[in-house]
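Could you help me review a protein record that somebody else here produced? This is what I was given.
***
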Amino acid sequence: MKEIMSFNKLTGKAISNYNSVAAYYTNLMRTNEPVSIGIIHVEPGGMVGYHDAPVKQAFIIMEGQGWIKGADGQIQTLQTGEGVLWDKGEGHESGSEQGMTVLVLQGENLFI
């Protein structure tokens, strides 16, 4: 089973500078090399088929809910504000019954 990362406002730190009000920052990850940043829209009943991650991939649900399944075959559900970090070469697939919008970060050296 993959460790689920949480990025909701409860995991964030209040932003107190810049005259900020009711705003929170959660660090997702850092990188020392270039990272590809993209969005995946999965419609209700849709899925991204099983494949091996070509590089490390952070899969972060920004809206909706869905599921992931790794090489172990175990399905894990994820909701808005949660995500997972796939290792390079790790097989996985994902999908959603209700639909979801996912932020995807891909790079050789992603780390939390």
User: Anything to note?
Assistant: The mean pLDDT is 90. Residues 12 and 48 are 29 Å apart (CA to CA).
